């Protein structure tokens, strides 16, 4: 079993309320996901804001254009500070994504994403991670960073 972790930090020139308002709306997830992943939320209805226990279902094509069903649950939420989404069904054996907001002394906001994941297929999954998964994850977060910079900086 090989569990990996990816972390990304990004600073915004605004307070946490503005960032939280955006990232806590499940409808904005598709906006910050690269088009090449063909991300499509299939949950019949979504609330305006996340809450603990919220389940979100979607289709995505994470590798080789293969359509995958992915189901996540928002497991924890602390308003304006953090939330956690966890995969219930999807391509990974484990997927645990923490989103943290920190207010800086200058009134700006630092956002920290921590993704802890375990690919499927044990040794082969570890090899796939070294060869492509970690790079794909980096590209997805590069895109997200770019979009969020355009919106908030």
Mean pLDDT: 93
Biggest sheet, in brief? 7 strands, antiparallel
The CATH architecture of the domain at 17-118 is 2-Layer Sandwich
Q: CATH homologous superfamily of the domain at 17-118, by name?
A: START domain
Shape: globular
N- to C-terminal separation?
40 Å
| Count of alpha/pi helices | 2
Q: Report the helical percentage.
A: 25-40%
* CATH hierarchy, class of the domain at 17-118: Alpha Beta
- SSE pattern: EHEEEEEEH
Give me the CATH fold name of the domain at 17-118: Alpha-D-Glucose-1,6-Bisphosphate, Chain A, domain 4
Low-confidence stretches: none
Number of strands: 7
Structural class: alpha+beta
Strand order of the largest sheet: 1-7-6-5-4-3-2
Rg, please? Answer: 15 Å
Taken as a percent bin, the fraction of beta residues is 35-45%
């Amino acid at each position: 079993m090989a569990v990996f972790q990816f972390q990304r930090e990004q600073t915004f020139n605004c307070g946490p309320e503005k960032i939280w308002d955006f990232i806590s709306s499940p409808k904005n997830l598709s906006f910050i996901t690269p088009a090449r992943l063909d991300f499509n939320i299939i949950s019949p209805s979504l609330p305006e804001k996340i809450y603990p226990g919220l389940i979100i279902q979607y289709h995505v094509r994470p590798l080789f254009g293969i359509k995958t069903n992915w189901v996540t649950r928002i497991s924890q939420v602390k308003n304006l500070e953090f939330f956690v989404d966890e995969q219930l069904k999807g391509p990974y054996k484990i997927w645990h994504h923490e989103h943290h907001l920190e207010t800086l002394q200058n009134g700006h906001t630092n956002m920290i994403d921590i993704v802890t994941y375990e690919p499927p297929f044990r040794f082969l999954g570890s090899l796939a991670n070294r060869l492509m998964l970690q790079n794909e994850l980096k590209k997805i977060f590069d895109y997200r960073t770019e979009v969020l910079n355009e919106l908030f900086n």
